[in-house]
User: What shape does this take?
Amino acid sequence: MYGVVCPDDVAVLILNTQAGAYPGTSTGWLGYGWNGYSFTSNHLTQITQLGYPAGLHNAVYMERNDSYGYVSSSNSNNTVIGSNMNGGSSGGPWIANFGLPSVLTGETKGSASTPNVVVGVTSWGYTNLALKEQGAAPFTSNNIVSLLGSACGATPAACQ
Assistant: This one.
């Protein structure tokens, strides 16, 4: 039995269409990665976290946090990052290779070859505001891949 920190705190939602189109048609899509996508052999990665934390601008604005993430075996293999976000940021994406690819000569893409790939979502954090860490359950073939397989099998038009 797990508490707040668990290995499978992930979900998939399919939104209804508006005017015959899914929201991603006008807002854009993010990919997803699983089983350690973008992590180094030392279980480290650069994460861009997005969310609407209540403690920053009363959750009115989407906030961004960039942090190095690591896999914590003592926390159900959740990824842990340094973050000043708090309540309200839960469910926000953790993105590897966020943004546009670099166009500098000789610049590499790092360990993740594809940009804008969600590798987790904010799952937990501390109620003690002095502790600036949050965690995300890892996306794996046993959770996110099987959930997306079921959702996309039921509504193929929603999956791009």
User: Anything to note?
Assistant: The longest strand covers residues 63-72. The mean pLDDT is 90.
